[in-house]
Amino acid sequence: MPQNRVIERNSALRYTDEVIEGNTVRTMSAVPQIRERELRRTQIEAVRERSLSMNLRYVLFLTVAAVAVVTICVYFLKLQATSTQLQKKTVSLQTTLKDLKIENDIVYNEIISGIDLEDVREKAMEELGMSYPAQSQITYYDAASSDYVKQYEEIPD
Q1: Are 124 and 130 in contact (CB under 8 A)?
Q2: pLDDT at 36 over 60
Q3: CA 99, 101, 102, 106 torsion-angle sign
Q4: I need a surface site. Which of 7, 15, 23, 31 has the fewest CB within 10 A?
Q5: Residue 41 sits in which domain range?
């Protein structure tokens, strides 16, 4: 004797189970209801209306957000352009510094090679009357530092 049961799920679909005794398998058949279709249509229409309706607050929010994003992008691009210019200027100044150092070394070597120290000694001794100091004129003392000495007063005899 078959039993018929009605199971209600989510208040939208009804399933009927027919139980047959013996070797046969239980079968389920879904019976869609008209209420379910109407409910889904109503939900879909409500979602469409919400998605299509834009109130003044939403439009203002989107406008402010878009302006903020564009402003930040423009500011970022300006900073990037400034950074690129500064990098180019730094490279240019480094190249100029290197060239000036090389030129300075060349001029310094020319000056050093043009000075004859023997000629300077002869002029100092003959024309200016300078001479090497005598042993009695040399005074030795201990310095605190070996780099250089500052003389603040006369050296005692």
Answers
A1: yes
A2: yes
A3: positive
A4: 23
A5: 1-53
